[in-house]
Each structure stands twice: as C-alpha cells, then as structure tokens.
Amino acid sequence: MGRQGNNIDPAANAREFRPFDCVRITIFGLATTALWSSLHSIILPLRIMEFVPESQKATCLGLLTFTGLLLAIAVQPIAGMASDRSGSGWGRRRPFILAGGILTLSFLPGIGLAGSLAALFAIYYLMQVSANTALGPYQAFIPDLVPADKRGLASGVKNLVDVVGGFTFVWLVGQLMNRYSPGPGSQWLWLSLGALAAVFLGTMVFTIMKVKEPPGAGGPRLPFLTTLTRSFRIDTRANPDYIRFLLVRLLFVIPLTTFQVFGLYFFRDVAGVPNPAAVMGNFILVSGGCMLATTYLAGRLSDRLGRRPVALISGIIGTAGIGLLFFFHSYHLMLLASVLMGIGFGGLMSSNWALAVDLVPKEKAGQYIGLTNLATAGGSALARLNGPMIDFFNIRSPGSGYSAMLLAAVISLIASSTLLWGIKKR
Question: Per residue in 7-54, pLDDT tens?
Fold first, then answer.
C-alpha cells in the first residue's frame, strides 16, 4: 500500500489495505463510544438520582437523553454535509474532528460540576452538539478511504474498536462509581471523567496526526437554510433502499440501547443486587467480550455471505438473550443473557454498518453517514421513552415496567429482521 510516513494513502491498492489501516481510521470511535456509554449507563443514572425523587428517576433519565439525542440527530447530517463541501488543506473530515473534540473536552467537567438538574441538562446538550460535530464527519472515513471489497472488514474493525472502548470503560467506570457518593465520595466521579477525557484526547490527537486525507475539493457556499434542508434530503431514486435501511437500523438500535440505559435500575429494582453499578459494569464487560469475539468475524462473514443472513442470525441470538432476562433474574442466568446479547448485537452492528457503507453514495458520504445517525440516534432516543413507561407500570405493579421494557425490545428486533429482507441483495 502506498504510504506517506505512517499515514493512510486513500489511493492505495485494495489488496494492500490491511486490518491495522482500518484501526487507524476508526480509533476515534473507541473514545466516543467510551464517553457516551459510560455517561448513559453509569454516570448520568447516578447523578440524576441526586436531583429527582425515586419514582421519577427513569422518566427523568429518559427525558434527558431523549432530548439530547434529538440534537445529535440534527447536528450529524449538517456537520457531515459541511465536511463534504470542505476545502481545507487538512482534508474534509479532520478539521471538524478537531473543533468538535476540543469543545467536547471543554464541556465534560460540567457533568461533575452541575449543581442542579437544569445545569446537568444544559451541559449534556452542549456536549451532544460538540461531540456530534466531530462524529458525523469522522464516520465518513470508511466510505472515503476503504476499497469497496474491504468495507465489511473495515466495519468489523470499527465495531470491534467501538466495543473495546465502550464496554471496557463502562466496566471501569462502574467499578469507580460504585464507590461514589455526593460530597465525600465525589473523587470517584472525577476519576471517571478524567479517564474518559484522557482516552478522548489521545485518540483525537492520533486521528488528526495519523489519518491522511487528500485536501478537500471544496464546494459552493450555501445559505444556512439551504444547507439545513439539503442536509436531510435523500435521493430515493438513486438510493431506493436507503429509507428502508434507516428503519431497519432504528429498530435494532432500540433494544441495543435500552438495557444500556436502564440496566442499572433493572439490577437495583428487579434483581435486588446490593451493588448495581458494579454488577452493571460486569454485565457490560461480559457482553462486550462476546461482542469482541463476534464483531470482527461477522464483518468478514458479511463480505462472503452477504449482510442479510449475518444480520438475521445475529438478531435471533440477541432475541434469545433478551428472553432470558424476561423470565429469569438470577445472577448467573443474567450473565448468560449478556453472552447471547453480546454475540447477537455484535453481529448486528458489523453487518448493519457494512450495509450502510454499501448504500451511501461516495460523493456524499459525509452527508449520508450523518443521515444514518437519524436511525442510530433516533433509535437510541426512542429507547429512552421506555423511562416513562417503566415508571408508569412500576407504580402499579413493582417490576412490571421492566417486563414491558424487555417485551418492547423483542418486538423491535423481530420487526427489524422482517424489514431487512426487503432490501435488495448487493
């Protein structure tokens, strides 16, 4: 593969594009996944309990993260389209990664400093805007730089890196935050935020230095409102399967996200464990290990067997894991459920992202990958609406809200698999 120092040459021959080159262009995802998974699964659920009554905690957590993800849905396509038109000598994507990353690091301490629910909401919203300004353009690296016959591999590596970041740091933060208490135990919150900031800064700098893009070609300057409307425009004639794909992705992201957000409350209220933050970290670690074992293999298999068969089998395995949580609440069976969910969702993540990269037009990769976040963040946002449902049913019958949550997750996976088969084979 042609190289410039240690950087990636996007004109490289496909046969010379190696797995480690995929790591170079996906390593920033480790930090973003670590950040949001840790905030959503551990830190925000515990911080919210400082400001609201017990009976309203799931509703408040769902409202905070739902509205924040609406901002993510809006920001990513706009940032992606702006990067498509960038004329920077650094390339199209890296200036946005740098600017959004610096702002995210500036806002992160506010999660610990917030002294009221309103302040926590405001800081979270600012972080959503800044982080997604970087994330939308970053996600266009695969269609920009990876040869077509290596995109399943690259998607597998991307999800492998994401899993390492997300689940390793959720486990670490779970162990730290298990000792957290407002006031005397606040140092554990700052250690958690410091670890997240360090990995975010390190991977951002690595990406800026090691990923080589050609200079941006630039494009005509457009009025803001024109940019806004065009950012969300999908050419359905040229991309007839893309709308269906977005719906498929949205429906599988809902159950993927649901337990990450409300799992700590599930372990506390249903399983009755004395240390729910640590147990949640262990659950995520086991699930993440299984995703590590699956996601790379699933990406390679999707290049050979096709995206749809891999996604369907993975969906069945993930559904079985959710079913175990529905019927059994013993610790060991819940860990078995985490194994099945890890295998299933690992396969879904790799095959689904490879399908996304197949479907986006290369000349508008930043915009369309940003639009993919309509499904990713949209599914994540809809998963948060389980919060009011959980509180509603739990008030009437303790624990029934979590049963409704798991049933909704199973229905969503089944619907996603059904719609997937309408997408034409490529």
Answer: 444 444 444 666 677 888 889 999 999 999 899 888 999 999 999 988
pLDDT above 70 (res 110): yes
Which residues are CB-contacts of 375 (< 8 A; sequence separation ≥ 6)? Answer: 245, 246, 247, 248, 249, 250, 253
Residue 15 tokens, joined: 């046969």
Beta bridge partners of residue 7, listed in sequence order = 4
The pair of three-digit structure tokens given for residue 250, joined into one six-digit string: 């949205």
CA nearest to 142, candidates 29, 240, 305: 29
Name the CATH topology of 17-216+231-420: Growth Hormone; Chain: A; (1.20.1250)
Contact indicator for 384, 355 with CB cutoff of 8 Å: no
Please, are residues 58 and 401 in contact by the beta-carbon 8 Å criterion? yes
**Res 313 pLDDT > 60:** yes
How do 3-4 and 7-8 pair as beta strands? antiparallel
Q: Name the helix (H) or strand (E) containing 3.
A: strand 3-4
* pLDDT band with cut points at 50, 70 and 90 for residue 206: very high
Q: Report the run of H or E that residue 7 belongs to, with start and end.
A: strand 7-8
Backbone angles phi, psi at 159, to 5 degrees: -70, -30
Angle between helices 365-384 and 57-84 (to 10 degrees): 180
Which pLDDT does position 363 carry in this prediction? Answer: 59
